[in-house]
Amino acid sequence: MESGMQKLVVVSNRLPAALKKEQGRWTVNPGSGGLVTAMAPVLKNRGGTWIGWSGASDPDVDVDSLLADFSKEAGYELCTVPLTKEEVDGYYFGFSNEIIWPLFHDLQTRCRFYPKYWRAYLDVNFKFAEVVARKSDQDDYIWIQDYHLMHQAFFLKSMGVKRNIGFFLHIPFPTPDIFMKLPWRWKLIQALIEYDLVGFQTIQDRRNFVGCLQRLMPEARVEGRGAVVTVHAGNRQFRLGAFPISIDYNQFSDLAKRPDVARKAFELKEALRHRKIILGVDRLDYTKGIPERIRSIQTLLRRYPDLKGRMNFVQIAVPSREEVGEYKDLRTEIEQLVGRVNGEFSFPGWVPVHYHYRNLPYDELVAYYAAADIGLVTPLRDGMNLVAKEYCACNNSEDGVLVLSEFAGAAAQLQKHAYLVNPYDMDGIAKGIHRAFHWSKEERSLHMSKLREQVRKNNIFWWVDSFLQAGIAKTLGDFPEVET
Ligand code: ADP
Ligand code: G6P
Q1: In angstroms, what is the span from residue 34 Cα to ligand 2's centroid?
Q2: Residue 344: count of CB within 10 angstroms of its CB
Q3: For residue range 182-204, what is the model confidence (pLDDT) as tens digits?
Q4: Number of the ligand 2 atom closest to the C-alpha atom of 147
């Protein structure tokens, strides 16, 4: 940690390393998803403590010694919160994954509002808060991450523990009509207003939150303009902000330039015989619109038969939440669709869809980004979507096109220079890909250079500085505008 800086204590459900039992042995794997990608360089840069669950719920595992090497190499302290299998089932698989995740992504029909999930969520939040209280002191800045842990400020206060504490939501915040379906809506809002600062990905998410707050507390008043505002609600005064999360741009761009990675990218192109590469990269999640995307490739090949044999769609999916039934069903659905599209169009020497279901090492993932002519990022709804930003950062040749869902948080920042599509509109996506194929070299380079400039400027270090400035500053100065 740099001298003179306030110590940072980051708290999230996941740590950057996750323990997993593979063939009877516990292994340490990098955590997956945008939260870990974004926060890891922040902690590496500033130092501090990261508190979270290890991914294991077996009481006999020696978590600390398994994670010791990871922590030493990372350069910051890792502190684990042990959870039992019952706690993981109720709080993580239940409340987090079967209630908040689908609800906040506008997919309320997938929610199971079981009261036992709510109770488990409260118990585990209390348990986390006890660890936070023990592992931090009054001068530290406590930064809670994401929807699993919305009750941290509430419980710390109820224990009489005083901390400067901020919360950042990595996923969207829904509109009042959707949020009001939550049986515990009032308790959740009451918990969120206990933070000193609550941050969202976009201005629209912040607006949705204010809408919900004012439905439940009509007297709540917002003061100020710009990215960070002050809210007065009952006896509480706190800040609200929009802070679009980002990536370590240089890390991705430099990795793509490394000779071995550039060679790998070239080999990928050669293996696909220099056909145009359309790339999708996601955690395997129903919010990512992967089946719809594969269907749009089917539509593309039906509508534009001249593309047969001239393109490949490569979908890389990282396994996620595999214990949950809906994720298992999604995997089967995707595999069947890939088979169906390949069955319809393949001919000797050409298979249109290449599907990889695994976690790739970063240099390999970056080689795919660098090789791809089109980055196809079409979530049905997404807080931000870092894949879109990673694709741009790796496109050093400035020759690629980003086709982006209008419902990804990233669209607020990247809309002027990405090709925006509605992820539910298969014809529209097919048309977008076809158009992107016909952009001239000048058009591609103009748009990609602007996208890269935006991601380079508003990178992860800009994000952390703007959040902490809003969290720590006594008065609100001029905050850089964020795109709405
Ligand atoms: P989410 O947070 O919902 O998973 P994001 O797009 O914001 O969505 O972040 C996904 C992160 O996971 C990115 O940093 C991306 O590089 C990483 N990732 C996605 N697929 C893979 C894969 N197959 N192998 C390794 N990393 C992956
Ligand atoms: C998203 C969420 C994160 C979560 C990640 C991976 O990025 O915002 O909080 O960690 O998905 O999901 P998992 O359930 O494996 O932690």
Answers
A1: 7
A2: 11
A3: 999 999 999 999 999 999 999 99
A4: 9
